[in-house]
Amino acid sequence: MTQQIFVAGEWREGRGDPMVSRFPADGSINAEFNAAGLADVEDAVAAAEAAWRAPSWRSRQPHERAEVLYRVSELIKSRLEELAAQQTRDNGKPLSEARGLVASAAGTARYFAAACETLEGELPTQRNADFMTLSRYEPLGVIAAITPWNSPIASEMQKVVPALAGGNAVVLKPAEATPLMALKLAELFEEAGLPKGLLSVLPGRGSVIGEAIARHPWVRKISFTGGTNTGRHLAHVAADKLIGTSLELGGKSPTIICEDADLEQAAKGVAYGIFSSAGQACIAGSRLFIHRRRYDEVMERLEEIAGGLRVGHPETAGVHLGPLISESHRDGVAAYVERAREEGGRIRVGGTIPTEGELAAGSYYPPTLIDGLPHDSAVCQEEIFGPVLVALPYDDEDELVGLANDNAYGLAAGIWSADYRRALRLADKLEAGTVWINTYKKFSISTPFGGYKESGLGREKGRRGIQAYMQQKSLYLGLDHEPIAWSD
Ligand code: ADP
Predict the structure, then answer these.
(1) Are 148 and 225 in contact (CB under 8 A)?
(2) Is any ligand 1 atom within 6 A of the Cβ of residue 411?
(3) pTM for the complete prediction?
């Protein structure tokens, strides 16, 4: 059966261009189908507009909305293996990582179900003589959720669930490379009893379908995760319509190994921070600053660790790095490494496209460690989105902070130090939305996430994650029995 898309509560053939989902490990075809067309956008948004206004969702008690989301969480858990396998086929992540993402997606649904049920308004003033005020949260309306290919199920649930919990409807546009996971999620929400029209999933080209959704006059917020240039463009679209955005964008996150760090723990943490997901993570710790006195030791250890990681077929147990999402993306990563070579960088590990055996069939790239480049080089400044780590020595803390902050992005940072006072002092000075101290790339759904500078606007997750999809209405209740003393 050809893959259908989910529009306005119905499964149907898309009315757009033909679309192919491929397995990045060998280029084989997962699915061929028709993407959404502009007519599907119209239908999806019209159904979403009607559905969020209907009492069947918006006026349902919070605990009743929560029940649907709890059911989604249970369904995800009960189908964990199937969903993880799908995620791996869709974007090439090793199965072990895909399982982790699916489990986190179930946690996201559970967390926002609980937050939905316990969401409270505010009583801003104590009662005064003649009036009291209260402020409550109401839905925004139709939300455009636009997601990237690197962690589909996690990034999609992170937007869809809090938006629905807040009483909104969602039109989800997954990335071109990974349309299948979002369609699978639509099945689960349908099975969990979400009223028709509240969720549509429209795979298609970003510049056509994503753009049409974002520009639609009934769309009241754009929640986007992806590249900074697209995010900036969508911020312009939102500004013209005077609507809000949540933008999770790129990163070039610094990791710092202080002189007093536990080097074994730090080296392993740094390797995990950059090489897991083959570096295809906005939070990848891709710039490494090492105190000069420990530089050689750390680099030797990193060479051993990176050299020992297993690159291979993502369905094989024990593989650390699967393929990159596509050949063209892999070639872009390789071009950065070539540029590093030309600019005098030393490639200490990796740096060549594998051409032997099963690796030749997919878009693989090995863990790569580079040093010897000035901090203003492109490889130190630009997001590569691949398994490429660039290292630099530093001598003192002021110089370090200057270098670490000398970047357009500000998504995350890592600090490895045995001295928490030092680590906290550094954390205060770093321009980043998330700072990991003696750990990296760990996530909690209860902790807000988002970027400084060109890494984004707004925060996702956390108890206020639902309010990000709501607007406040303040009420004044007069308590005085007398007329307002003005015209006397
Ligand atoms: P990445 O670099 O991660 O591929 P993109 O920003 O290109 O990031 O893509 C992230 C998501 O944004 C994808 O779903 C893509 O289709 C979508 N997208 C790209 N261009 C636009 C656009 N002009 N309007 C809306 N969505 C877009």
Answers:
(1) yes
(2) no
(3) 0.97
Question: Cβ contacts of residue 429 below 8 Å, gap of 6+?
Answer: 401, 405
pLDDT of residue 140: 98
Q: Which of the residue ranges 101-105, 123-127, 175-179, 386-390 would you say has the lowest mean pLDDT? A: 123-127
Give, rounded to a whole angstrom, the gap between the first and last alpha carbons of the chain: 78
Pocket test for ligand 1, best of 156, 215, 230 (most atoms within 8 A of CB): 230
The 10s digit of each residue's pLDDT in 200-222 is 999 999 999 999 999 999 999 99
Catalytic residue, candidates 282, 431, 454, 460: 282
CB contact at 8 A, 6 and 186: yes
Report which residue type is found at 403: L
- The residue with tokens 């009036």 is 131
**Percent of the chain whose predicted confidence (pLDDT) is above 70:** 99
The token pair that represents 189 in the structure block: 């929400």
Give the domains, in start order, of the chain with CATH numbers: 5-249+455-474 (3.40.605.10), 254-437 (3.40.309.10)
Instruction: Please tell me the predicted confidence (pLDDT) of residue 110.
Output: 98
Q: Which residue's entry shows tokens 């393929």?
A: 323
The answer to whether residue 58 scores a pLDDT higher than 90 is no
Judge if the beta carbon of residue 211 lies within 6 A of ligand 1: yes
Q: Residue with the nearest Cα to atom 21 of ligand 1?
A: 206
